Acetylornithine aminotransferase (Allostreptomyces psammosilenae), 424 residues
Amino acid sequence: MTPPSSTSPALAQAAPAAETSNAAYAERWRGAMNPALGAPELALVSGSGARVTDADGTTYTDFLSGVAVNALGHAHPAVIRAVTEQIGTVGHVSNLFISTRAVELAERLLTLVGADAAGGGKVFFANSGAEANEAAFKIARRTGRPKVISAEGSFHGRTMGALALTGQPGKRSGFEPLPGGVEYVPYGDVEALRAAVDGTTAAVLLEPIQGEYGVRPAPDGYLRAAREITREHGALLILDEVQTGIGRTGYWFAHQAPELTGGEPVVPDVMTLAKGIGGGLPLGACVALGEAAELLQPGQHASTFGGNPVCCAAGLAVLDTIEREGLLDHVTKTGKRITEAVRAMDHPLLGPVRGLGLLIGLVLTAPVAAEVAAAARRHGFLVNAVAADVIRLAPPLVVTEGDTEALLAALPAILDDASAGGPR
Ligand SMILES: *Cc1c(COP(=O)(O)O)cnc(C)c1O
C-alpha cells in the first residue's frame, strides 16, 4: 500500500500501522478467505534467501520454504531475472502455440531423469502437484486396466482425482464418491504390495518419502520391490516426487538416491513433480518414460496455463542455479549436519530423526509439534508441525551454514520453551 503523500518517510518506516499488522491481516483473512484454508497468524510480506519478514516487522529464518517450494529461498536473483525477462518478452501462449521455455525445460528434465536409457520420455506441464498427479492418473487409466494401488498415509493432492489417490481417509471423507478403482496398501510392506498387484492393475503410485505423513522414507528395498512387482504384472510404477524432487534430498530425484533405493536408481514409468521446480512459481510436471509416454493421445489432456513461459523460465533458473552452485552436494552436506547434530542432542522431547537431504522429520516423544513450532517462531525460526509428534524441516536448498548452526544452537532452548508450555 502506498502511504498518503503527506506521510513523511520517517513515519512510513515506523512500526506497522495497526491495519497492516499480522493480527489485522489474520482477521481480514478470516473474513475473506475460504475457511477450508484454516486461520494462519502470520502475514509474510518480504524475504531474501532463507530470511522472511512478517507484517509486524519480525524477521524469521525459514526452515519450511513455503512447504518445500522456495528451493532457492526468497527473492533469488536468478528467478527474479528469469521471470522479469520472460514476462517482458512473452508471458503466455497457451497449448495452441509452442512455449519455447517449456520445450527447453522438458528436455532438461528428461536428461536429468535419464530418459534416453529408459526408452525416451515425454513431459506434461501442469500448475501444481495435484494436477501433475491428475495427469499421471489419466495415463494410468489409458492402460485400460481398472485398478490403481496407492499407499496408506500417502498424499497426492486435493483435487478429486488426486484425492482419490490419497491414502488418508480423513482427507477423502465428505467428498465421496471419488474416481473409483483405487486401493490402498500399507506403505513399506512388500508382501502387501505383491498381494495387491495383478493383471488388472494399471499402476502403483508411491512417494519415495511420505512427506505430508510425517517425513517417512520408504524402507530398505521397498521401492526396488515395487519396481519388480509392477514390471512382473505389466503395471506402471508412478513415483510422486512432488515434494522429494528437484534436489530436495540431495539428488535431482529421490529415486536416484542410494539411501532410498539401496543402489542403482529405481526408474519409474511416470514421475510427478511440482513444489520446488518453479522456485516459487506455480509449476507441476508429469514425466512419463518409455511406453508410458505414448499412452495419452493427442487431445486427451491439456492445461491452459500448463507450460506457461514465465513459470518454465523460473524452472530453468532453478535447475541452472542448482547446477551452477553445486546445491545437490550442499543439500547432502547440510542435511547430514542437521541430522547428526540433532541425533547427538540429549533432550527428553527428541526421538528419532528421519528423512534425507533437506527433507527432515524430527520425531518428538510427545504430541507437542504445534507447541514446538510456536516456540521456534518465538526464537525466530519457521518450522512445520507436519504431524502431532513430528517437526518437518525443509529449508531452501541455499540455506547457509550460519542459518543451520543458528537453528541447531537454538533447538534445545526451543524444545525447553515448548515443554514449558509457552504461549501458542
Ligand atoms: C504437496 C504435494 C502434492 C500436492 O501438491 P499441490 O501443488 O498442493 O497440489 C502432491 N504430492 C505430494 C507428495 C506433495 O507433497
User: Anything to note?
Assistant: Residues 385 and 391 are 5 Å apart (CA to CA).
